[in-house]
Specification:
The complex is a heterodimer of chains A (94) and B (359).
Chain A (H helix, E strand, L loop, with lengths): L1 E5 L13 E5 L6 H11 L1 H7 L10 E5 L2 E2 L15 E6 L5
Parallel strand pairs in A: 1-5
Antiparallel strand pairs in A: 1-2, 3-4, 3-5
Helix pairs in contact in A: 1-2
Chain B lengths: L3 E7 L2 E7 L6 E2 L8 E8 L6 E8 L3 E7 L26 E7 L8 E6 L2 E5 L7 E2 L1 H4 L15 E7 L5 E6 L2 E5 L7 E2 L20 E6 L7 E5 L3 E4 L7 E2 L8 E2 L3 E2 L7 E3 L1 E2 L14 E4 L7 E3 L16 E3 L7 E4 L5 E4 L7 E4 L5 E8 L2
Antiparallel strand pairs in B: 1-2, 1-29, 2-3, 4-5, 5-6, 7-8, 8-9, 9-10, 11-12, 12-13, 13-14, 15-16, 16-17, 17-18, 19-22, 20-21, 21-23, 23-24, 25-26, 26-27, 27-28
Classes of the chains: A alpha+beta (94), B mainly beta (359).
Chain lengths: 94, 359
């Protein structure tokens, strides 16, 4: 299945300049599986959004069709066919 | 004289200053803008010009990058230079220290991190391995966190396999086998913030430095207390007499001359400003027996602190001294602290400065 991914402009230097792309995922895909697919081609991007334990960094948010995954099932939140997945930095900093 | 590089790490980026005479400086545009730079290492061993930085984004985490062309380009291994092994279940929060080892171990670079951990690189800082001996130390569960986080913030390599680290809170630990086993070395160092007599460990040692002439002699700026050890850290005695305060964060040792050290006193734990609101560096030429206040060229109206790594020396002759404030001012002395000039103003909070005369 294909999903649409929106990526933060701040990390465009880690994704070959791209801020959106379509990805192929298995039918039972999850946010973690989607990030694993991204990581294979963009390992530095992956380290920016997940730490070495695999956890999503505290100030990085992922939305699946407009719902923030921490309010769903976290990284095992299902990603349905045709979904739009948005990775974006949270409001933080000073 | 050769070019001197002064690297300035701040809350919002890295600035590089260069000078041919250490008096007139030219300042770069910011690198890593909006990213914290709490640690810098400049490696000039074997003719290298390698700059290493530990950067940290509030959003996107910490990483180590290096540059061999004075910041024109930066390299970062795709898999990251530093990261906890999976079995630890831990993640690096901040890289507090990047310290090249001695000239006779030219590939070795040490890192100190939050959570409290020490790391060793054998490839010039391109990849680091966790020192398991310290990570698995039975004291770990009793180490605490200072305001800035629980970190091994000072790594001071010595001869053969000796390395001293300082952590907040935990105090000084020493290895003599290159990082395999570690013992606390805090005898004589106060921990006034804990009840009872000073413990074996748990102190909040802010910074340590090693004497240039006698590698068994160390100096410490503690969370109240300034100390010297003449026995490789086995015992510490106060050298605070003659200073306006025994509080502060920085401790610098002259790389060319034994017995010469600098501190930057702040009033107290509860009043973290320069005494009298006037910034001054204090120097001892006799291992802490006597101190002299040096403030020529430093501001007489300064209410910002100098953090533990925001002071540094180069190895020039005479030695250069550098201090940066949380108010974003950076000062340089080309004459061992006798007089200072302003290198940069109105930067973000200065977290770290490092300087080297380039080969």
């Amino acid at each position: 299945m294909t999903v649409r991914v929106l990526l933060p402009r701040l990390l465009a230097d880690c994704t070959g300049g791209r801020t959106s792309m379509s990805l192929d995922l298995p039918e039972d895909g999850t946010v973690r599986a989607l990030l694993d697919v991204l990581a294979a081609d963009h390992p530095v991007f992956d380290r920016r959004v997940r730490d070495e334990t695999g956890a999503l960094r505290r100030h990085v948010n992922v939305y699946v069709d407009g719902e923030e995954v921490r309010r769903l099932a976290g990284l095992v939140t299902p990603v349905p066919a045709g979904a739009e997945v948005m990775v974006v930095q949270s409001v933080a900093g000073g | 004289m050769a070019t001197t590089l002064l690297a300035i790490g701040t809350r919002k980026g890295l600035w590089l200053a260069t000078s041919e005479d250490r008096r007139d400086w030219s300042l770069s545009a910011p690198h890593f803008l909006m990213t914290e730079v709490p640690s810098i290492g400049i490696d000039t061993r074997d003719g290298r010009r390698r700059l290493m930085v530990g950067v940290r984004s509030e959003h996107f985490g910490p990483t180590v990058l290096h540059s061999d062309d004075l910041g024109e380009t930066w390299d970062e291994p795709a898999g990251g230079a530093i990261g906890f092994p999976a079995d630890t279940g831990a993640a690096v929060e901040r890289i507090w220290q990047l310290q090249p080892d001695s000239a006779d171990r030219p590939g070795v670079v040490w890192a100190g991190c939050e959570p409290i951990s020490v790391w060793r690189s054998d490839d010039g800082g391109e990849s680091f391995a966790l020192c398991r001996g310290l990570w698995d130390h039975p004291h770990r569960s009793e180490w605490g966190a200072g305001y800035g986080g629980a970190a091994a913030h000072s790594v001071v390599p010595g001869p053969e396999g000796t390395v001293h680290v300082a952590m907040s809170t935990g105090g000084v630990y020493r290895t003599r086998d290159g990082g395999g086993s570690w013992q606390p070395r805090n005898s004589g160092i106060s921990a006034y913030f804990m009840p009872g007599p000073a413990p074996e460990f748990g102190q909040c040692v802010h910074k340590i430095a090693r004497d240039a002439a006698d590698p068994r002699r160390l100096y410490a700026q503690n969370h109240h207390g300034v100390y010297r050890s003449d026995d490789d850290g086995d015992s510490w005695t106060s050298i605070a007499d003659g200073l306006p305060s025994d509080f502060g964060f920085a401790m610098l040792a002259d790389p060319r001359r034994g017995g010469r050290i600098w501190v930057v006193p702040l009033v107290a734990d509860g009043e973290r400003i320069p005494p009298g609101g006037e910034l001054a560096v204090h120097r001892s030429d006799d291992a802490g027996a006597n101190w002299r206040r040096l403030a020529t060229g430093l501001p007489t109206h300064e209410y910002n602190a100098v953090l533990r790594d925001a002071a540094a020396v180069d190895a020039g002759d005479p030695v250069g001294v550098y201090v940066g404030t949380r108010g974003g001012e950076v000062y340089a002395s080309a004459d061992e602290g006798e007089s200072f000039r302003t290198v940069a103003s109105h930067l973000p909070d200065v977290l770290c400065v490092r300087a080297a005369v380039l080969p």
